[in-house]
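Progress report, Aim 2. The chain analyzed during this reporting quarter is listed below.
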Amino acid sequence: MDLIERLSHFTTLDLAALCLLVLGWGVIGYLIENEFKSMKSVTILMAGYRREWMAHMIAREPRVFDAQLLMMIRQGTSFFASATMLAIGGCLALLGNTERLMGIAADLTLEGGPSIVWELKVLVILGFLANALFKFVWANRLFGYCGVLMGSVPNDPSDPQARIRAQKAAEINVTGARSFNRGLRSIYFGLAASAWLLGPGALMAAVAMTCFVLFRREFASRSKEILMLPE
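Predicted structure tokens for the chain:
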């Protein structure tokens, strides 16, 4: 079965829904990660606080608080990486037993189709989960690099190397947080992609809902209002 024959099992609405999924994932990521004059995301605002954290860390004695905070952040990335690996295992198991998935679809009176249709839909979910795993693992490593840089900051705040290394630690911290957030977004859209099992209309609705939730949390949430309060 060649590629054209496989794609023939999908309708134009299926392909449009898939394009909308990828487009929504890319656009919302661009809006969140880039700073605009008219609006700033929570991610951008928190990046500023991460840089201030490293600046204050220079004069903090002892630096046990900073080490514990970084450890807590790394534990979060490790948890999500482990959870994503379990989800990937579940998807791989599902790929090996598509007959069961087709049986569930029949029970729900969903539109039938050959096994390749269901396998490709699961593969889309698996792709988002794999991307999330890569992002979480890399974020965990970056936070480890940040810890090493923090340890290399001289104890003397007047040392010319102190501020330079603290700034490097801050940028690595921000980069790690960006990778972690990308992993979270991949999980969000992986969940949205699972709606494709119910049909292209369900996928479109799930993508719209996911984009709305992410946009609201980054640009119109209570946490954004708190971060924007004057100091």
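The longest helix spans residues 115-152. Residues 40-197 form a domain with the Butyryl-CoA Dehydrogenase, subunit A; domain 3 fold (CATH 1.20.140). These observations will guide the mutagenesis work planned for the next reporting period.
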